Amino acid sequence: MRAPVTIEMEWVRRLVAGVVARGEPCARYLAEVGIAPALLAADDARVTGEQYALLFRLLIERREDEALGFLSRRLRRGSFALTARSALGAASLGVAIRHAGHTLGLLQDDFQLRVRRQGKLAAVVLHFMNVEVARSAFVHEMLLRVYWELFVWLGGGHVRAIRFDFAYPGASKPQRYGGVFRGPIRSGCDETAVWFDAVWLNAPVRRDARALRAYLADAETHVILPQRFDERVSGRVRTYLDRQRPVWPDLAATAGFLHMSTATLQRRLAAERTSFLALKNEFRRDVAMTRLSTSRVSVVELAQELGFSDATTFQRAFKGWTGRSPGAYREDNAIRVVSAPR
Question: Which helix (H) or strand (E) holds 130?
């Protein structure tokens, strides 16, 4: 089971920007997944990962457009599946990426997905032919994210990005990425691309048709949500906290589990621009938001579950995290659907 994760409202605004730009109302989509439309303008608001993935799926299925309104014409439902299937059976991951790029080129005319090799490095590159489409920073982010995650999955989940380059128009810069892109990020580049060790181009494709069917059954979650559990120390801490619930280990216990001293753990977390307390509070926030929007657990029970001394302390902390009380958050964010019609 995926551990709870929450998403900044900025990412929700980006997700619906293509629909909004076309003059279509998005309030009904937000309401259906339990996001109060009025919260769209609230910079400090967050939604659960489940709500975000459901919104992504709902926009695709109701509008029959996997590009969410960002391309010059609709990318019909099934395009991603067709692209993924075209990569299966390839002699290597490099060939699989080329097959996928060829299929994408048959489905739309706004961008090309290319493979480039430069010495010991290789890159999956987005080349835009439509200047208007390329003006949206989220298009760069979404396309690179979706197809890179697919290629990593085809490679057995072991391919690691060395860096992400973004070619944003004007003065735009990548921001608020959280765990979306796992690797160094550069902005103002000539092209949008993800770089990795070129040795992976010759690696075999490690997935078959049966595995692809399972992957596609929940593709939205696989490709759109931040991947929290990575090799970073912060990711390992979060994984440990999740596994220990409802017990909430302290710094010393966590350091011991990771086979390092408390000083070393603090130093390594500081190098990742976080701390144990920040990670613990962020995780408790994500658990609280997910539980409030998907269950009828009482505030008292949730406070105990999250390791707070009493409900009052929990309510004070929750308001500090979200700007609202648990009750107000539940009223605005209760998920009304489990999944969109398929």
Answer: none
